[in-house]
Amino acid sequence: KPKDYIPFTQYLSQFDDIDCHAEGKPRIVYVSTDDPTEVRNEVSQLPKDSEGNTLLTKDACHKFQFVFSPFEQSLGFHIKTGNVKADCEERYARSVAGVADLMILAKSDLFVGEYNSNWGRLVRTFRLRMNNDAKLTAGVSPVVERRIKIAWGPKKPGPPGW
Predict the structure, then answer these.
(1) How far apart are CA 38 and CA 7, in angstroms?
(2) Taking 80 as the threshold, does the pLDDT of residue 33 lie above it?
(3) In sequence order, which residues have a C-beta less than 8 Å from that of residue 151 and are 6 or more positions away?
(4) Cβ contacts of 107 within 8 Å, gap of 6 or more
(5) pLDDT (tens digit per residue) in 105-156
(6) How many Cβ atoms are within 10 Å of 54's Cβ, its own excluded?
(7) Are 67 and 57 in contact (CB under 8 A)?
(8) CA 59, CA 42: separation in Å to the nearest integer?
(9) Where does the pLDDT of residue 41 fall: very low under 50, low under 70, confident under 90, or very high at 90 and above?
(10) Which residues of 102-126 are buried (b: 16+ CB within 10 A; e: fewer)?
């Protein structure tokens, strides 16, 4: 049956063209999602090795261990869910969790996401840095983007607010 969201396996398939870790070590994958229950269900159905690592790429050379962002169902993920006029402690907790997610995603070795929401575009912005290469006058880009792979949708972000 068709799903009304992008399956988690679509995100993991972005590793298909990336070299496997030496010595078969698993990749630690931080998962930031507004539907952790569904993603955990998807992960539980994926094949595992004898050590509990998830295996899912075209040649099964990648192993994954997943770490999920802390999520309090009672607070909701989006500001418009749950009690919108919640007390200051709830709003503060949601804000701190959001900033922590943003910083982890911004500093990760690789971000696999999408630009269908403002969140993906904001993460991309935090993954940019100025290029201090001496070859700037020779046409080298003045901005360097840390590794990003897009799982679904447009490969380039739209303008702010798009």
Answers:
(1) 9
(2) yes
(3) 6, 10, 11, 13, 14, 112, 113, 114
(4) none
(5) 888 888 888 887 778 888 888 888 877 765 666 666 777 778 888 888 877 7
(6) 19
(7) no
(8) 20
(9) very high
(10) beebbebeebbbbbeeebbbbbbee
